[in-house]
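User: Quick one: structure for sequence A, then sequence B.

Assistant: Sequence A:
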Amino acid sequence: EVLRTDLAGMPLEWIDYRSAATLYHSEQVAYACGSPIYRVHGGYNARTGLRSIIEVNSIIATRGDTHNVERTRAHYTPPLNNTTLFKRDANICLYCGLRFSKSELTRDHITPISRGGHDVWMNVVAACRRCNNHKGGRTPEEARMQLLAVPFTPTYAEYIYLKGRRVLFDQMQYLLAHFPRTSPLHERLRGDIERRARSLEPTDTD
């Protein structure tokens, strides 16, 4: 996936390489950063006989009116779905602290819907089926279950990260710079970046 930004460098969305190539071809790409990840071959020039090649980078900034995006971004509340919720909570049950696959997790309402709770980011956490069943229609306090982390509503940039299926090293670094300083995702993303950086270090050989 390619990370598309506006002219100011603010993350906008993930696009596939075909959409990115179209933006390059229509001269909508103002500048690119990150590393080249795709090379798209086009047709042959009838005059020169040369084949066109578009090199697509992992991050591209595109032209266009982004004032409406900038105005709404500060008040943006991302749509709530299980995929991004579980990724927000690192696929960890926030009651027992164990990591599970996405299919083994559920969306738990801290204050149950039946008790006036709402289906919003600040009232939901990832929970394994066992913990969710044990809690039932009670609050964590009533069920004597401790919540291991405080839920939060992702910002626009955080949500872009959570939506990414396979975020590359340079895209991680780029998105991290756009997270709020207080973002709970800072520590996790820095850890991922450090692990990837170590894996790229050359190995000494005799």
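Sequence B:
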Amino acid sequence: MRILRFFRFYSIFGKGEIDAKALLACRKNQAGLKKVSIERIRDEYAKIMLTPNVAKTVKIMHDNDILGYILPPAQHLDYLEKLITLVRKESLEESALRRLFILYMPDEKLADSFATRLKFSRKQKDLFVSLARYNPDISEFENKASLLTLLYKHGREFCEHKYIILCAVAGKTPKNFTKTIENIRTLEIPVFSLKGRDIIEAGVKDNRKIGTILSILEQMWMASAFSMSKEDLLSQVHGDLKRAE
């Protein structure tokens, strides 16, 4: 772990070029990291992710194959720099997971592999993979109706991370950036009011069709910008039953 701490302290306190002798010692002894648990490696690497000069430090680590047995070479150091600049400018909370994601911009398969390899918690893995799986446009976050849909489907945490990542990758801060972040954090997320028992009480006796009908009604509700009431939805039950058959 001394090797990783060396890089963490360099990223926090280091000025100028990294000490050549110390770097050589890290390279010669890096095999010892394989004896350290993945959990400890993950936690120390997360600390490095939150240091001031992380992009420069990560590049040195990858150039010298430190942790190469776990992580591939960093792909998007430029995006990481843009993310750091944006987050600092807007006084947002830093996130090691968000920094790691933008460093690689993984597809769903690679994101799942990362999360498994680094033994993320279930919650962390779900978020990390979701950031790779779903790719809405920036404009969808800036329109209230479409933002409500994103919040309903994916939750606040996903929406905030994804919006910040998209803006950083685009290399620009939208004029309404602050307002959009506020909306992500404060808009009331719609709640789908129908349950299976409501469908049964509406006269559907075949339990095999309840899930399908609920799904159809939920889609109708979202398409109405969440404006359909419970009564409006229930009035559609028998029509949806015919479509489900």
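The chain has a mean pLDDT of 90. DSSP finds 15 helices and no strands in the chain.

User: Thanks, that's what I needed.
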